[in-house]
Amino acid sequence: MASKSASLRKAQAPLSCHFCNEQAVHWKCEECDVFMCTSCKEKIHQRLKSIQDHEIVSVSDIWKDNPPRRDVASNKQEKSRLVKGKMLKSSIRILQTLEKRIFDIAVNKEGEILFNEMVNNEVKIFTDTGEIKTILDTSPLTLLSLHVNKDNELIAGLRDQGPSFPITDFSVRQVIILDGEYKRKVLLETDKKGRKLFSYPARIKTDSKNVLYIADIMDENKAGRIVAVNTNGRLKFTYNGSTDGQSFFPHGIAITPSDNIIISDWNKNSLHILNTRGELLGLQFVDKEYNIEFRIRCA
């Protein structure tokens, strides 16, 4: 009985400061995931070089306002939302949500979210204050993908109205680069021989040299390829997936600091890693390794 009572008292012991081990805890750093007293917050934690953007919250606020866990994504197609969150050490803090059917998003250097909906051809900005502003309307062309490059230029994928496929000689499939006033600066549509560069530019990313990598959908089944093109329209390479004969379904692109290209393949629940020459460096099956299914996007 005495042993059980001691264990109970130990389990009910109050939190102690991470730095001095005292029990007068008043603060928590969300990024470090540590509790601390007021003295250590000012004398130790604030002197750390890496804490400039760390969020410090009062323990009383945590206990007073402890919202229930929420899903930030849904597999129900009729329910779509845009979620802005902040990565913490062991969780994501939801900052803003927007209940709209979003087709694509991009983030500019000011931290504003640019997005387009499935119901119109407008590019909108979602500000930190929750305000929504329309900055561009691509009508009569249909707006597809969005991206902001390292120079803070907006890039958009476009197509003509009507059925997406089949592609004809009269089909319009473009990627445009806009300047700071959202006026067209560069138009990418055909190569030097007049052949269409894209079929359906669904996703766009750029590397440190502003080379564009486009997830280009080729048919109604959403099989596709990766098209790499310079801003002058010169084709660098196309990548049609690994050589196993299976269809390639590129639905997301991410660029690493070393300019390697990571593509999510919906068909095989895998990640393809390419270098800037379009050579396959690796293939990771995330369903087998990490039990992740239907990986659509990566960043």
TrEMBL record:
CDD domains given for it?
Bbox1
Q: Where is the B box-type domain?
A: 12-59
Tell me one GO molecular function of this protein.
Answer: zinc ion binding
- Tell me if Ubl conjugation is a UniProt keyword of this record: no
- Protein keywords: Metal-binding, Repeat, Zinc, Zinc-finger
Query: One biological process GO term for this chain?
Result: protein polyubiquitination
Q: Which InterPro entries does the entry link to?
A: 6-blade_b-propeller_TolB-like (IPR011042), NHL_repeat (IPR001258), TRIM-NHL_E3_ligases (IPR050952), Znf_B-box (IPR000315)
Per-repeat ranges for NHL: 236-277
Q: What PANTHER family does the record point to? A: E3 UBIQUITIN-PROTEIN LIGASE NHLRC1-RELATED (PTHR24104), PROTEIN LIN-41 (PTHR24104:SF25)
Q: What is this protein called?
A: B box-type domain-containing protein
Organism, scientific name: Mytilus edulis
Source lineage: Eukaryota, Metazoa, Spiralia, Lophotrochozoa, Mollusca
